[in-house]
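Form 7-S
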Amino acid sequence: MSGEIVIVGGGAAGLMAAGTACRRGRPVTLIDCNATLARKVRITGKGRCNVTNDCDADRLMAAMRTNGRFLYSAFSRFAPADTIRFFEGMGVPLKTERGGRVFPLSDRAEDIAGALVRWAGDAELLEGRVTALLPGEAGGVRGVRLEDGREIGCERLLLATGGMSYPGTGSRGDGYRLAGMAGHTIVPPRASLVPVETSDGYTGALQGLSLRNVTLTLTGPDRKGRERVLFSELGEMLFTHFGVSGPLVLRATTLMEEPAGRYRMAVDLKPALDREKLDSRILRDFERYRNRDFLNALGELLPRKLIPVAIALAGIDPHTKVHQITRAERAALVEVIKAFPVTPSRLRPIAEAIVTAGGVDVREVDPRTMASKICPGLFFAGELLDVDGVTGGFNLQIAFSTGHLAGEYL
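Output:
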């Protein structure tokens, strides 16, 4: 069995590439290990699918954490505005929310997945797991071998198998092994956009607490080993039974590597107030509740779950009467509120990451076509490449842009 083009991987990048190639009149065989295509797309964004980010080129490039310059051509050919037009043209109305995040109007990721499957509808679909590349002449590829022994021939091959996150969707790292067979260098995969385990003893007591409009600051070594602030942004985060998660934490982890214990996190619980204004606010509350125990005087300032933890960190007896709190104790409370400490111990497993960082070394891939520089006829797209961005729809945009570009040149 043979076809001119074989695409391995029926996710966002593979489906975009398949439909793009088909519309140029080329026969395409799309191989995926699942009977249901776009399985990861169907669960992304908690089932809502943050499909892209409605932003300009500067912001798009700024959102790339790894090898952003490599993506310049792909983004130029298929930008966020093109993604929006694409899905609305496929009958999926979209909406834009805070931070430029674009979702289907229905809040159903299934609608995005369905549009991608329809786009690739002219491709021949095969279910199976590709286990090997068939070497061709002059170091190229002439096809693939499936786990059941079937061999599928091709003139050109696209690997769009994804990374290693959410392995239940089929992303088990097969693409790294296949790319390695073709002689490509693999930058070691690591978790990105992933929750963080912490060593603080109070994490369990805060489980389920969601914080909004707080600033998370990450401090640690940069790539040259210099200690500095790596990340500081306003947004939302969540305490879990193992540590912390939520949009701010996920964004911060794009700048973290193991061992995570090298980093420190601090949460400004009242970013709208500087220390002096916060102290004045506390004094007003203290005047109102001056005869209460300290433990019962912070209800208007902090979430209920956070109060005993903040008091303990400030080193104040919770049963001290408010009018007995000293200036030094008040200053300690201000410091805890402005820099609530969170101590990372390790990143959660890569299987729980939204995105896998690392992958095929982009120095070995032509950014203008997504073609391999070392294996004729081989192309790459999506998460398999060593590219990644922050949360907010940027990683799906990488998949659509690289998939579209590869589809044009396949």
